[in-house]
């Protein structure tokens, strides 16, 4: 009874429960989006089932059918959540088969529907086992690759840490060498300035001694010159 009701609530275009159903003048109903998509691909706006031309560009909403669909979906979801096994979202039946064409679990009603015509099926347990085996096969190389990546990452981390340690050690060495160099330059500067000042003092003393000696010589020479000039200017010298 539930399957028959569900078939009555399925859109003839998408074969799914109606969404926003609209009603044509020929009494056929369709999902609003399905009908518009159908008409977009056709030259005339005819009914997809009986090909009767539609008298309206925008058919009215089928409120009765919309309410029925919403009530059916609500009841189906409640039954699905109450059960321990997964149920088909379309037919509320147990998912016993796996469609190889659509790659999805289906129920027995889905298998006989138009949507799965000429499709291949397998028991869901068998398909699940095959899927697990395929996953296991694909998982092994991924695990090996992950292990390799972790190993490479570990080596990179060790190298990065070694680079940091080496950089800090080199930095300390550079600072120590420049500290010694600064100390040497400071001592060299002080030594040269001291030597320069000592040389300056020595030369200054020498020049002072020479200046004083010259001053004495100049004074003595000046005295001699004055004495000679005085002697030349006396009257006795003139009469003789």
Write a brief caption for the model:
This protein has helices at residues 2-8, 32-41, 63-82, 108-111, 124-232, 235-239; strands spanning 21-23, 29-31, 97-99, 104-106, 121-123. With 240 residues, the chain is mainly α.
Explain this structure.
The protein has 240 residues and is mainly alpha-helical. Among the domains are: 84 residues, Herpes Virus-1 (2-Layer Sandwich), CATH 3.30.40; 35 residues, Double Stranded RNA Binding Domain (2-Layer Sandwich). It is 65% helix and 6% strand. The chain contains six helices and five strands; from the N terminus they run αββααββαβαα. The strands form two sheets. Strands 4-3-5 form a three-stranded antiparallel sheet. The longest helix has 109 residues. It starts with a helix and ends with a helix. GO terms for molecular function: zinc ion binding. Keywords: Metal-binding, Zinc, Zinc-finger. Pfam families: zf-B_box, zf-RING_UBOX.
């Amino acid at each position: 009874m539930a399957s028959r009701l569900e078939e009555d609530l399925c859109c003839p275009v998408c074969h799914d429960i109606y969404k926003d159903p609209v009603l044509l003048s020929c009494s056929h109903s369709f999902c609003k989006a399905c009908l518009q998509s159908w008409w977009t691909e056709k030259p005339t706006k005819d009914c997809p089932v009986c090909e009767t031309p539609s008298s309206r560009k925008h058919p009215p909403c089928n409120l009765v059918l919309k309410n029925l669909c919403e009530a059916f979906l609500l009841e189906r979801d409640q039954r699905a959540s109450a059960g321990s096994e997964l149920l088909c979202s379309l037919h509320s039946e147990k998912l016993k088969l796996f469609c190889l064409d659509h790659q999805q679990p289906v129920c027995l009603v889905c298998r006989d529907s138009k949507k799965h015509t000429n499709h291949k099926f397998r028991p869901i347990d068998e398909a699940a086992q095959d899927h697990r085996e395929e996953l296991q096969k694909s998982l092994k190389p991924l695990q090996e690759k992950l292990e390799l990546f972790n190993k490479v990452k570990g080596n990179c981390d060790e190298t990065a840490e070694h680079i940091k340690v080496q950089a800090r050690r080199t930095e300390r060495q550079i600072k120590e060498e420049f500290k010694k160099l600064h100390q040497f330059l400071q001592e060299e500067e002080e030594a040269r300035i001291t030597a320069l000042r000592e040389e300056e003092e020595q030369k200054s003393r020498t020049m002072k001694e020479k200046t004083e000696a010259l001053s004495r010589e100049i004074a003595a020479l000046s005295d001699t010159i004055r004495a000679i000039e005085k002697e030349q200017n006396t009257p006795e010298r003139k009469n003789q």
